[in-house]
Amino acid sequence: MSAARTAERPSKRARNAAVGLTPSAPGAGKRSRVPDDGRLGRVGWLARPSLRHRPTAFLAGALTVFLSTAVVGPFAAMIETALHSGGEDRLALLIMGGVVGGWGLVIVLFSLASAVGITVRQRTEEVVLLRTIGAAGSQVRALVRGETLVMAAVAAALGAVPAWFGARALLDALRSGGLVSGDVRFRGGGLALLATVVAIVLVARLAAAVAVARASRAPVREARAAQALATPLPRWRRLVAAALVLYGVGFGVVTMTVTGRSDEPYDAMMTAGNACLLVSIGLAVVAPRLLQRFAVVLHRRFGRGAASELALSNAARRSHLLSATLAPVIVLAGSSIGTLMLVDVDVRSMAAAGGADRVTNLLNVVVVVMISLFAAIMVINAWVAVVADRRAELRRLWLVGAAPSTVRRSVVVEGLVTGVLGAGLGIAAAATTVVPFSWARGEGLVPDGGLWLVPALAAAAVAVAVLSATAAARRVRFQSA
């Protein structure tokens, strides 16, 4: 063995410590071995310093789990309450809990998986280092899954508390609005909240397992290279994205050809309303590839100035990291524009027929408010986590000569890029709802009114992204060591 190769190889003591070999008691003359059966093993002692050195990233993941439980829990409680009710009250509660909560659950679980994936992918360097010194891939995966399980369980349990109060407030609002009778009693107890907590924890654990799989199974050199450069999207992600987009477009086609001609006017709303959500999520699944191509085009035309050069080159080379901030912007813009435009067309077209259905419009507004608030929080959360993990990188840019203001402006430009791209993709997703529904209600391909909602909501999505990036960049400190 050459001297250079020997120098690069970890010591035998380090390799043994990583895989679970520890010296036995003095005088025993031999060592005991912890079986490598995929358990956490002796490498588990790294969990505490990992949590201590990445508090912001782990708090961002915990906040996502907490909010996910708080958002989904009230709708699960409505389903449990509906099981103890009857007649029209039961139907109204099932619609609120099943339909509205179901779409909210889809958005929440997607955002949760994305946020947990950010936290885990930021640890690729740590995973590679553990494998370099001899840790088994199964041990690394067990370490990450165990940390995520503990974090998610604690955060979800805490989120069940506001979910319970939110469920009671939601039922009070339904009673006061006349959507259910006043004698409906709240029955959403521990069963619904327990099911919500279990579902949220399982999704978080699954997302962690998927995120750490590549770095723990691929060769060390390949895993290290994948951390620095964007890698091709897995085939399964492209297939999922294509299926969601085609399914959403299919809903639009069905609206124009089938449900739009139905005698029941709200059949068209049921199919059209699903389209923008499905397409938004589908586009968000392939956000890394979309961001990479968009950044390359912008870099060729607008890559002038230090801040723009840094931001666009980083977005093109490391789109897999910044895409976590793009995905919630797409969902925010697509769902809010599509659903609010749908409600506007419905109110205007049904005015001549005795007025729009108050219950249906209220449900749509609840969907928009819930998804928009959650998506906005996810945008802020994603930027906090991403910039917190890049503090060392941003500090190195300052050490090689970049002014602190230039470094911070580059982060803001990244926020502007993701905001503009996300708003544009959101408008495209919203069109799959607005155009078919407008056609079905006799207003043509372009609605007769409410067009101001499109630029207003798109600008709001861009503003959320830019302000989030600005706030996260201001937290970076450049003091000398």
From TrEMBL:
Biological classification of the source: Bacteria, Bacillati, Actinomycetota, Actinomycetes, Jiangellales
Domain ABC3 transporter permease C-terminal: start-end pairs: 104-219, 366-480
Subcellular location: Cell membrane
Ranges that cross the membrane: 57-79, 91-113, 149-171, 191-215, 236-256, 268-291, 321-342, 362-388, 416-439, 451-473
Keyword field: Cell membrane, Membrane, Transmembrane, Transmembrane helix
PANTHER family in alphabetical order: INNER MEMBRANE PROTEIN, MEMBRANE COMPONENT OF PREDICTED ABC SUPERFAMILY METABOLITE UPTAKE TRANSPORTER
UniProt name for this protein: Putative ABC transport system permease protein
Membrane topology: Multi-pass membrane protein
Residues covered by region (Disordered): 1-36
Subcellular location, principal: membrane
Compositionally biased region (Basic and acidic residues): 1-11
Entry's Gene Ontology cellular component terms: plasma membrane
